[in-house]
Amino acid sequence: MGWLWAIIVGFVLGLIAKAIIPGKQHSPLWLTTICGMLGAIVGNAIARAVGVESTPGIDWSRHVFQLIAAIVIVALGDMLYMATLGKRKQQRA
């Protein structure tokens, strides 16, 4: 059940990050989901390092760290995708 939640959270974080990043992103949905999952992991690690282990109720500060990390990772993932596979697909079209 933990992997299912990781995929769902990664999917949602990736889509939110993609919506926040200005301009058009060309990365596919599977890559956005993976980058969102990595953003959640990195955001949790940063939150623990800052001292936000857990709070009563909803951990809004932890979610903010996750979202910021997801935005950075989705942007980097899209740039890498366009630098490698994306250019080949544009040349064929």
N-end to C-end Cα span: 41 Å
Q: What is the makeup of the main sheet?
A: none
Continuous helix count: 3
Low-confidence runs (pLDDT<50, min 5 residues)?
A: none
Order of helices and strands: HHH
Relative helix content:
over 70%
Average pLDDT number: 87
CA-atom Rg in angstroms: 15 Å
Number of strands: 0
Structural class: mainly alpha
Percent in strands: under 5%
What is the topology?
Elements: H1 2-20, H2 29-50, H3 60-92
Helix pairs in contact: 1-2, 1-3, 2-3
Explain what the structure shows.
- With 93 residues, the protein is an all-alpha fold.
- Helices cover 80% and strands 0% of the residues.
- It has helices at 2-20, 29-50, 60-92.
- α1 packs across α2, α1 crosses α3 (60-92) and α2 packs antiparallel against α3 (60-92).
- It is elongated and about 55 Å long.
- The model has no long low-confidence stretch (mean pLDDT 87).
Could you give a quick summary of the protein structure above?
This protein is mostly helical.
Pick out its properties.
mainly alpha, 93 residues
